[in-house]
Amino acid sequence: MGSERETGSDQMFSRGTAGCAATFVWGDGYLGYDFGEHPMTPVRLDLTVSLARELGVLDHLTVIEPHPADRAQLLEVHSPDYLDAISAASADPGYVGFGLGSADNPVFEGMFEAASLIAGGSRMAALDVWSGRSQHAVNIAGGLHHAMRDSAAGFCVINDVVVAIRALLDAGAQRIAYVDIDVHHGDGVQAAFYDDPRVLTLSVHQDPRTLYPGTGTATETGTGAGEGTAVNLAVPPGTADDGWLRAFNAVVPSAVTAFRPEILVTQCGCDTHHEDPLADLALTVDGQRAAYAALHQLAHRAAAGKWLALGGGGYGALRCVPRTWTHLLAEVSGRPLRPDTEIPPSWSRNLRSRGVTTTLPETMGEGRTPAPELWMPGGESWLDRSIWATRNASFPLLGLDPQDPRD
Fold first, then answer.
1. Helix, strand, or coil here: 130?
2. Which candidate, 380, 379, 376, places its Cα nearest to that of 403?
3. Angle between the 43-54 and 345-353 helix axes, to the nearest 10 degrees?
4. Which N-terminal residues, if any, form the signal peptide (predicted)?
5. Series of mean pLDDT values for 10-residue runs along the chain (407 residues)
């Protein structure tokens, strides 16, 4: 950073915390996960890292290079035939099958290697936290939560989230809480652990009647030994910061705390943003920043500080994702950025040099201060009915009172 940035650094960070021992798993190889002309552009990752670097956020993280997951590790999550299909598609641009070669999941050269690298990075981040080498770890390239055992889905080829959770289970974890705040339901992760009492999967997402993948209703609560360990909170289109955070506060902290996890895994997709082209929620960067702070606090309160944070969706590649995930990186480090921090002029100039003509943000926030109210039973709005449906379906299974707002 230039001297101007360094001089203002004290004003950039909120210093309410002494900082956390945190790892950032990053390598330029992640940029090889590239579908071409497609919403899931690696540009969003590149711009996030460059913004975080210019703001000094990376100075407070231990950055480690990812290594790809090997076949044995991937076979814990995906079938042999599907892994063979990904390998075949990596060398054949005309390949179609197993969800590959579709508009959502077009094939590209090196697909297997790129997807395996992301999965390996999430696995490394998980084990870095579980081993105690760091309190928190983050892989913004991860969070590919739609991939199923036998197929690609929703821009996701290998489900790195499930790879990471399987690694934690193999390492001895007995209670893992997974919280997914992407705008889309975390269906692939839920499917992998729907009958597993060791893993709580909790997804906060846009109502599935209005958005892909069409799953994630409040009545999906797990099966067999896993009954009660799937929690789904579907919020209506148009939900903004205050409403989303009110719903989150009404369900997530109580459910996670009641489960008593040894580690918290979160999928931090930022496609809940009001400018996102693929969904219909209305959060600002400020609301998303508040959500990450809430997850950080929850990790310390409910999981002895062990927190693995992964990326996910987010298709506002210029105005949303770089700011929001830079806030995530800063939060993971324990030195959150102030929302009035100015965007470095050099970062914006770099985009202009690439031919970008879009109006670019000037600060790390949008001038909002979220102020969610406490949820109370009896509300008649769509949002209140959604909160009640989730609490009514899931809270008794977790030993909680659905009508008590203190739960």
1. helix
2. 376
3. 150
4. none
5. 39 64 97 97 98 98 98 98 98 96 97 98 98 97 98 98 98 98 98 98 98 98 98 98 98 98 98 98 98 98 98 97 98 97 96 93 97 94 98 98 93
Residue 14 has a pLDDT of 64
CA distance 146 to 230: 16
Q: How many CA atoms lie within 13 A of 157 on its CB side?
A: 30
From 167, 165, 169, select the one nearest 179 (Cα to Cα).
Answer: 165
Are the beta carbons of 134 and 126 closer than 8 angstroms?
A: no
Tokens linked to 121: 């990075």
- Catalytic entry in 145, 146, 205, 274: 146
- The first and second tokens of residue 255, run together, are 């459910």
Query: What torsion, rounded to 10 degrees, do the Cα atoms 209, 385, 161, 19 define?
Result: 140
Is 300 a catalytic site residue? no
As a whole number of angstroms, the longest Cα–Cα distance in the chain is 60
CA dihedral of residues 389, 395, 400, 401 (deg, nearest 10)? 20
Please give the domain boundaries of the chain with CATH numbers for all domains: 18-398 (3.40.800.20)
Radius of gyration of the chain (CA): 20
Residue whose token pair is 């109502």: 207
Measure the CA–CA gap between 336 and 324, rounded to whole angstroms.
Answer: 12
